[in-house]
Fold these 2 entries.
Entry 1:
Amino acid sequence: MQTRILSPDPIGFASAAAIWRAGGLVAFPTETVYGLGADARNDRAVARIFEAKGRPQFNPLIVHVLSVQEAQSYVGWSHAAEVLASAFWPGPLTLVLPLKSGAGLSSLVTADLPTLAIRMPAHPVAQGLLAAFGGPVAAPSANPSGRISPTSADHVLTGLAGRIEAVVDGGACPVGVESTIIGLVDDPTLLRSGGLPVEALEAALGKPLEVPGTDSPISAPGQMLSHYAPTAKVRLDATERRDGEVMLGYGAIDGDLNLSSAGDLIEAAANLFHHLHALDAQGAAVIAVAPIPDRGLGRAINDRLRRAAAKG
Ligand code: TXA
Ligand code: MG
């Protein structure tokens, strides 16, 4: 794939929006760092973000929106959300709030969590792109997994050229570090320091932020233990279904549902949470899961399956 460089003008915005509508990936500038964007409602497009970054885990992603009203269609709003959004949006602040049921976002965006990280970027190019697209854009920083966040289109191309459809070149990012992330599911909690100073947030809230301690279940943002695990036990590397089991197939090893009969790991990732929920709802004691190759997106799929098996 040849990665196109798009201009930060209406023609570039229209091209980027067309790529997003077709399920493709476009990196774009925000005031913090460049994001690697996809249509947040499209499972397959979001799966491709993880594939392009080479991420061995499904970390939840930030959804970018153009207005508070749009944010309110995806998350439960609160007084603290109103205070922080009216003081700092658009800007380098991400809020984690309860996901609304029926929000229509891909379950890969939230890594199947009941919460959603959402922000309204201030960069005019990001806003122009969101307006041209007219929908929610999921975007982690546009760097390969384990590398530092990109603050120019050149940085993006160094890491991801040939792996994504396009990058919109909007020059250097003015803030240069990622957004500050505040959890608002309980008392306002600092989940990640970033471009918006803690002092400004605390002044607006009129109280100190909670900070997750080292003994807290949240070791890093998004790494919470409350991740979905099926009620059923999970048996991995199953080559056949035993009595009383339901089976999740992959490739030639078929089951009640198949993650991808064609053996396509992007399709398998896009189907993972849906199929686990659907099989769990059948009420069997055990979900047997066919072997998944441990390469590319298969590593993230296996990471999630191992967690489900450990808890089941
Ligand atoms: O400035 C930024 O925030 C940039 C630009 C592109 O918007 N994005 C960014 O995304 O830094 P990323 O994926 O590199 O970092 C997002 C962080 C991750 O650490 C993730 O675990 C956390 O946000 N996160 C996402 N959803 C979450 C949730 N529901 N609960 C807790 N943490 C969450
Ligand atoms: Mg990042």
Entry 2:
Amino acid sequence: MKRHWMLRAAALASALCLMGTIGGCTGSKPDAKLTQIKIGMTLYKQDDTFIATVRDHFVEAAKAREAADNVKISVNIMDAKGNQGIQNDQVDKFLSQGYDVICVNEVDRTAASVIIDKAMAADIPAIFFNREPVSEDMQRWDKLYYVGSDPSESGMMQGNIVVNLYDADPDAVDRNGDRKIQYVMLEGEPGHQDAAIRTEYTIKTLLASNIRVDKLANDTANWQRAQASAKTALWIEEFGDAIEVVFSNNDDMALGAIDAYRAAEIPLPVIVGIDATPPALEAVRNGTLAGTVLNDSKGQAQAIFEIAYALATGKDPAETVPQLEGRYVWMPHRMVTIENVEDALAD
Ligand code: GAL
Ligand code: CA
């Protein structure tokens, strides 16, 4: 009975709002008249540590706004399980069920055009995040957005963590004293902008600081801790204690490297990651991880939510989301080392 009444009240409210668009439905609290907003989100892989934190912060942001604006926001989050075909089907479902906006963490960022075609045909805006579509795709429609972080910035910060350690005490990094850093590089998924560009800028930063480097090995571990641990175990067998630095495109893989060193029972070299996930911050605190770079999952989730909310309520995100540069949001990073890890843990 009560539910029935609420539905009628909601229908009436939206009818009022529709009529109001002619007479001006733009009071100070227009949101109070909305019945329900439906946001669909699809994740490339739900068990990815960083992506899971983005998801959790997104749900929190939606709940907070629901309470603050007295609207019903329904968020449907689906796991594409690393399969672009599954993700395309999920997008089809959202579009055919009349979602107001879709948020897409693509499995294959170069395959965005298929999803863009579908969204354009349904006239439902799309916010891509974390896995950046190529700019040709982004330019196809003015209802496409991207939220992420600049991989050249995180790469430079990761490089600078090692530059700072080296400058403070070269022998602590360059253990064989040849004034070159022997390193290995654990890379994220091939084709991911954060893998290629972070790798490039990390090394460029060392070279720009006149630190000479010697690459012993590099390989992908697809962002994953277990894969990184297996790769590092092989490198330890091959190079032993000649590895002076393990660079890793993300924290999970850096933690995998630490696992391998612990299993091999040899002293840890300098190991650096990116993301500042909770277990990585613990590792910085206990000294096994020399540093990481905060990839602001909360800030990114909030930006995705704010853009989605604006689009779903008929507003221009450019007016409500100050971080937007055109249709892009680039969330800034921050370096995290033993010196400021307590602040990062407290955030
Ligand atoms: C990166 C992040 C990785 C992984 C990847 C997934 O930005 O650093 O840990 O989550 O995104 O696309
Ligand atoms: Ca050396």
